[in-house]
Amino acid sequence: MTGMEKAFRWGLRILVWAILAFLVIPILIVIAESFNGVNYLAFPLKGVSLNAYRKFFSDSSWVDATLNSVRIAVVAALIATTIGTLAAWALARTKNRSKGIVYGILYSPVIMPLIVLAISYYAVFSRLQLIGEWVAVSVAYSVMGIPFVLVAVSSALQHFDPELENAARTLGAGPVRTLWKITLPRLTSAIGAGAVFAFVTAFDEAVIILFVAGSGSVTLPRKLWDSVRYDLDPTLAVAGTVLIVVSVGLFLLAELYSAVRDRRRTRALAAATELEGSDG
């Protein structure tokens, strides 16, 4: 390895660590700020206390906003997972040239600026008198979650052998039973990953909710935004910590589930190979 290559490698490492620090340090500061010992935001910390957490979990407005965020995110994730999975399966089984247009339409919520989506939702919901309805907010967020599910499931379907479906149909299974018994069990990890992304997207989104929440669907990001304008105290850091912990925790659980599932498959394959060898 030449001196130039070593310098390039070290420079690349420093750049990666600098980017990682740029992303992680603000998160750590928010979490640390939630334990501040004073009743205002200050860094470095002026003591350590759990008063902000006591205030957060004893204030019904914060608790209600958190539970409302969870409710909206769960419904949005369910809708996005169902539509995204079925769309990925249908598009993978068709050879029509127009499916590229369908992909573009389904991916458009990720490409389109959030402010444009927010204004569009506001125009539609206000005309239908749905401003503040949590179900309508869930539907709006489900549209944002569909692309994540579509990407995950479409990627998994590229490694799925369609002959398994053909074999099931040859044995008498209909399309619905084949999808339920053969296809979906082999896409569990991808569907779960897409569902997690859809949930997190709906749980911590703060732009669209400013337009369509009204006074009837105050989520945690909306409550956090409103509180920033009137009261700067460590309770805001607690709310931010809740958003961070829920998002990161879900991704870690999804990764753990995927790792356990892969390990079980490896063991089952090894056992089958060993059994086949002993029979031979």
Compact overview of the structure:
The protein is mainly alpha-helical and 280 residues long. The chain has helices spanning 3-33, 51-58, 60-92, 99-111, 114-127, 134-157, 163-170, 175-183, 188-203, 208-212, 220-230, 234-279.
Kindly describe this structure:
This protein has 280 residues and is mainly α. The protein has one domain: MetI-like fold, CATH 1.10.3720. Helix content is 78%, strand content 0%. The chain has 12 helices and no strands. Helix 1 crosses helix 12 and helix 11 runs antiparallel to helix 12. The termini are far apart. The mean pLDDT is 83.
Please count the helical segments.
12
Radius of gyration: 24 Å
- Total domains, how many? 1
Stretches with pLDDT under 50, minimum 5 residues: none
What is the number of strand segments?
0
Please estimate the helix content. Answer: over 70%
The multimeric state of the shown protein is: single chain
Instruction: Name the CATH superfamily assignment.
Output: MetI-like
Give the topology.
Layout (H helix, E strand, L loop, with lengths): L2 H31 L17 H8 L1 H33 L6 H13 L2 H14 L6 H24 L5 H8 L4 H9 L4 H16 L4 H5 L7 H11 L3 H46 L1
Helix pairs in contact: 1-12, 2-12, 3-6, 3-9, 3-11, 4-6, 6-9, 7-8, 9-12, 11-12
Notable traits:
280 residues, mainly alpha, MetI-like fold, 0% strand
